[in-house]
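Exercise 7. Predict the joint structure of the components listed below.
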Amino acid sequence: MLQIDTWKRVLIWALVVAGLVLAAPNLFYNRVESHNDAVKAIEAQGSTAEREAQASVWPTWLPSDLVNLGLDLRGGAHLLAEVRLSDVYAARMEALWPEVRDVLRDARDEVGTIRLQPSDPGILRVRISNPDGMARALELVRGLAQPVVSLTGAGATDLQVAGDGSDIIVTLSEAEQRATDERTMQQSLEIIRRRIDEVGTREPTIQRQGSDRILIQVPGIGSAAELKEIIGTTAQLTFQPVVGRASSAGESAGVGNEVLPSLNEEGVFYILETAPVVTGEELVDAQPSYDQNGRPAVNFRFNPSGARKFGDYTAENIGSPFAIVLDDEVISAPVIQSHIPGGSGIITGNFDIAESTNLAVLLRAGALPAGMEFLEERTIGPELGQDSIDAGKLATGVAFAAVLIFMFLSYGLFGLFANVALILNIGLIMGILSAIGATLTLPGIAGIVLTVGMAVDANVLIFERIREEIKSARGPARAIELGYSKALSAIVDANITTVITAIILYVMGSGPVRGFAITLGIGIVTSVFTAIWVTRLLIVMWFERRRPKTLEI
Amino acid sequence: MRHLRLVKDGTSFDFFKHWKLWLGISAFMIVLAMVSFGVRGLNYGIDFRGGTTIRTESAQPVDVGAYRDAINALGLGDSTISEVFDPTFGPDENVAMVRIAAQDGQEAVTAETVASVEAALQEVAPDIRFVSVESVGPKVSGELIQTAFIAVGLAIAAVLIYIWLRFEWQFAVGAVAALVHDVLLTIGVFSEVGIKFDLAIIAALLTIVGYSLNDTVVVFDRVRENLIKYKKRPLKEVLVVSINETLSRTIMTSLTTLLALFALFALGGDVIRGFVFAMIWGVFVGTYSSIFVASAILLWLGVKRDWSKPEAEGDAKKAAGGASV
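Solution:
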């Protein structure tokens, strides 16, 4: 009859205790948070007395996972960025031009003179003066193509080369575009992550969404504009050959060249070849330092392939100037004095120490491979978040108290059992949220409050059923037993349908909606557990002690 | 000790004396809701139509006219300013929401636009603070609204299939009719009252779907049980008995949920008030619809009564086995 195996009892209590222990750190939120921050700091930057003291405010043997507070509760910034993937195609085609030029120049007898034609970004259009040599030219350019490095694009090559009259048209093949998109997204994510880490903020969310979007959420930051500044600074460093000087930005530079202004000297413009010799992507290190005159500068080092290109170029072009370009501004355009073989160098300009430090950080983090467009920006001030937390706490408390009183009035002792289950239920929700590192948002708090209201539903179903069974004049033990077993199918059906909506909300929703779906889903699972198992165990334990002849329910 | 009983024992209210009238009223309400939706439309938040909202806070009273003049001078097109009132605000908390339409040809509102609005408002109220600034570009907002509709549609479809598997198709039709009724009436109320309709409201809509369904399923579960128990009684009587038997539970659960929601409505702050309002409304229509729409439609469609037939029993067992994992 009314029996629960000992192992089941132990298991039920063990699960409850585990949940409550996991939830416990949230009661001491600030203390645990400063402990966690200190532990992280010790790991990253070594131990200091102050950090050790801070870390010891919470014992290490206790769980220290906390529920993350969402942006709407803590304040911070949210950005949804779309990466302009086609930027990379354009950069690739630009970089390809010198190679195409060199290989065709070697076959000048067959194809005649070659000239770069203006074209849309992402398309390289080259005109040859001898159209009869087109077949040979196409063959040569196709020879530059490389196999695509990706699982899906196996067997394909990266370039698509076609002839159009006397023009050769080169574009990236579709397989290569897909592979490039993937790389661009990975790189963008990585760079954004590194830049935000450099600023040192707590629990940022950097997630890829769909094929070309990135969601960035940083709690505690002042505004979305600030966040954009941190990730949006491109710090694109290139070394480009100098063709000549210009007096204005509007001066025509010729195909394959561009006019860029000088960073420090007003009114000075340089005409540069668009295709860079080396780019910042091949940097392995950049550190702030000083030049021989003691002015702040930045030391840099290339990776082997960058070092080789840089070495070859400096060896071949001694005596001619080359430009160090940062974000489309010429930092300096020194004349190459000698061959620079080691792959390291120094950037000097009129920097102050802060600028040189900042530049080194940006160079180290690398440039974003493509531009970004911001589709969604949200800033939530910390005070609004605090207001929401306070309001949420108060509302949850009042809702909780009202439901507890109401349940006691309606079902007496059984209502108390349900209330114990309800309190444990909230503990379990917080425990699970902390353990999986979920984020609590304002709608999430609403989800918990709703769960409080709905969690009693399972118990109400059971208790009402027990009342009915008592009416059919069965003994108390039998009535309880039947009450539980007969209510079960309604409980299961009702909760599965709610779980279905929670899952759909989670999959389709974003941001706050997702937070709501998580708490709703977890709340359903825990409320079914506490309602069915915990209250039943409580009732059985009570029943074993008292052996009542009639049930007051 | 006497416990609180909201529904007297042995209550047998004849819910279906005028069931056609109830269905008619529900249908009429839906038509009314759709007319309101057609005429007034929803007050979409920036999530769904793009643009920027700025929430301001100042110790001085909000002068909506002065704010409007300051912003109109910038020539940013359609903008609205509304003061926010809330009992939880202190005396020196004067909050306003400023909404600026999406700017032509810009995916997201630029920092300069926001900065210019902020500067203009600062001239009107020097101590003004901008506690939240949110911008959504038209591209995303278009997708968000599409995803939202798909989510609601998917939820309803999933439920239809689940109930069909667990019960019979007539139950599924009844349940889904009740859901559609609830969702449409909620949309009608939102267009009539003009509360901001944003992403959170979609979450509320789906919760209403879940709640209403919860309620319907509990009634249907009892109907199924009673159909087997009282093989000879007419369907109408079985439905009335089932609803009366579950009435106490229906009222209890609605009340506890409403208690929690009213606490949130009164004390939870203005940010989620619209969201909570939708859920409170949902509890009312959800409870109403499980009796007067879902069960009434079940009565209208009729149900296969002979649950003892071997293949029917096999079906029921299979379904129960499939779901009790």
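Discussion. Residues 51-136 of chain B form a domain with the Alpha-Beta Plaits fold (CATH 3.30.70.3220).
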